[in-house]
Specification:
10 helices, elongated
């Protein structure tokens, strides 16, 4: 494909940063764009595996404590999440249940809920209302030091970074540049990859 056609599809605004980073070379800009797609594809694979592992570990943790249908029960009237402070979590669960309709199962509900939902299980209210035990899904979490408090807020912050990367990739934003600059650099992608691997471990 020639650059002018490529630019019509992708838009000049989106391609401009690539072209600037490549010293104005349209051929190199298209190559860089494709390389960013490949990098995003590779990162999204790791992200997806982490997301599945995280939600499954949370479900595995809470099922013996709160029962086989703990999510639906938590969002029901009188449930752990049926409170003003966790209304969004409750509404998210109930919306997913409605969406699943007659095909509802607990396992389908677990899969239906997005990364943002699972991330917020470590927020203050969800963490507290469900028993303050969720850090057990990270059994090798380091002990708190004077410098870093490895608590649920620490995990929430780390997951927020991963969620931000996930959204960048999902919205087709580049991950091959220095932040806000037209300078080729994979530090951002590598740092987030290392963070995901660290949380996996």
């Amino acid at each position: 494909m020639i650059y002018s056609e490529f630019e019509k599809v992708i838009t000049p605004a989106r391609l401009g940063r690539y072209k600037t980073a490549c010293g104005g070379s349209s051929r190199k800009a298209m190559t860089l764009y494709r390389k960013n797609l490949k990098l995003s594809q590779e990162m999204f694979t790791v992200l997806s595996c982490f997301e599945v592992a995280l939600r499954n570990k949370i479900d595995e943790h809470y099922t013996p404590i709160h029962g086989n249908d703990w999510l639906r029960d938590a969002a029901a009237v009188g449930g752990f999440l049926y409170r003003n402070k966790t209304r969004m979590a409750q509404e998210t669960i109930n919306k997913a249940i409605t969406s699943l309709g007659t095909g509802y199962t607990h396992y389908k509900l677990v899969a239906e809920l997005g990364f943002g939902f699972w991330r917020y299980m470590f927020s203050n209210y969800q963490f507290a209302y469900l028993g303050r035990t969720l850090l057990n899904v990270f059994p090798l979490l380091p002990a708190t030091t004077l410098v870093i408090n490895y608590n649920h807020n620490y995990i929430l912050t780390q997951l927020a970074q991963i969620n931000k990367l996930r959204n960048r990739i999902a919205h087709h934003e580049p991950i091959c540049f220095q932040p806000r600059l037209a300078v080729k650099d994979t530090t951002y992608a590598r740092q987030h990859y290392n963070l995901i691997i660290q949380l996996f471990q």
